[in-house]
Hints:
Layout: H1 12-20, E1 26-27, E2 33-38, E3 43-47, H2 58-72, H3 81-106, E4 110-112, H4 114-127, E5 143-147, H5 150-156, H6 161-167, H7 169-184, H8 201-223, H9 227-231, E6 235-236, H10 243-268, H11 274-277, H12 282-292, E7 302-308, H13 323-330, H14 338-347, H15 351-359, E8 363-370, H16 373-385, E9 391-393, E10 400-402, H17 423-438, H18 441-457, H19 463-481, H20 487-497
Antiparallel strand pairs: 1-6, 2-3, 2-8, 3-5, 4-5, 7-8, 9-10
Helix pairs in contact: 2-8, 5-10, 6-8, 10-12, 10-16, 18-19, 18-20, 19-20
Amino acid sequence: MKKDYSEYTPTDYEKYKFIRYARNDVKLDLFHNYATVSPAEKCIRLEVDGGYEELTMKSELDEFAEFEKQKFHVRDHVPSPKEEKESEEFRLSHIEDNEAYLSMLKNKYDIDSSRYYGFLYSAYEDYKIEKEIPLNNVLSGAVIKIRYGEGILDFIYADFETPFRQAIKMPLAIEAFAEQYRKDNPDKVNRDPAPEKIYNQNQEIVQNYLAYTNTLIYTRDIFYSSLYTAICPPMFRQCNRASRPLKQYYSYLKALQEEYLELIEFCFDDEFYPSVLGHLMPSERFCLYKRLHNHPFNIGRYEIFRLRMNSMGGSKMPFGMSGEELTKRFSLDIKETDEHRAFAERYGLDVSDLITQTTLPTFINVSYEFGTVLEILELELTKMLEIDMRFRKCKRCGKYFIMKGNYDTKYCDRIADGETRSCQELAAQENYKQKVADNAALPIYNKYYKRYAARVKVRQIKEDEFKKWKYAAIIKRDECTNGIISVDEFVEWLEQCFPNRIKSTKKQ
């Protein structure tokens, strides 16, 4: 029996889940990415899905084009010279934009796309394609290494509002025009279009890909605003009315930003209610946070166990080896024995292949699959809870930063918008200026330094005497700064060092 939920009052947790999970118009888990964690290095290795590019989808796209040609008698479109020119201009512009986006991301992160580009170059040769095809996503197929905390901080301080405000202008204008057209031409509008027929699996795969590429028109600047949004891009199910999914996607990102900023403060900030939370571990504080918000205490994720010869999942066996251990393994001189021959015969192997396979090391690689921003944020946060992570709020810009080792600082190393130097550098300069302003001895020292240096130039004071004076003057300056001697005593000492010489007069 159909149920009526019009009077239903959702719980706070149901509202929470609705914002972060339920999206009728937006697919949030399009990509299948993988993350490998290294607790020893406090790092996460991210492998980005490379399947949503024109070259990787070419066989499916070609099959779909042939299907449409046969099923619906669609003719091949022959572009006009004008269309060819516009297409080439778009291609070059898109490549230029990609280079700018990738350069921006590489300035912040350790990104390796060499393996994926090798695959693309071989595909160009296989398909005999001469011109470079722009990537839909410059991080497709990339391997990215980040330290614990970097991804979360990058996300919570990303500016999604500016590109969202810009992106929503076009769909709002198009929808307003369409609505006016419907009002002016009610007889030409089909209010109940027939549902689209799906004939095979490849049709849906290609249509998802095309919906994703259409989504990029509106979201490219939004998802390049942070690392995690770039590797977990959305797909709008209805791009002809893009304002609604755009708003849903934006509200999803803003809700996550607010939540994870609050979590960093609650779990890792020593100055957040220290008498209440100061004695608790970050994991205990997280548990309290969950309890206060009536959230479940478990977080599920999809773990994948893999055995690899070309990728280590750690630095010690069975996860990995050092360079010295690898050299030792490859240098093994295994002699063929009767046992080798018997084993090879039992399993249908060539003896030389058996020796090769037992010489090459194999490593356990445990990774986690994720497709949404929420999933990678949860993974990073829980890994941070397992170690002694420390965050501090910058006294200059007010943003959190990761404390590194025993280095105690109150300022972050970010370069704020409109600045050319980091908060640390600006704070050091400001502190120096304040120190100079508060130090009466320093301008007095500078005054006499300039006076006596000028006398050195005209040879009224010998250079070696000036060097000895400078050393003694610095000591006296510091004594004055520390209150050991008074300002008047410091001036009196300076005056007596090189008294003014009286010019001699010749008798007429």
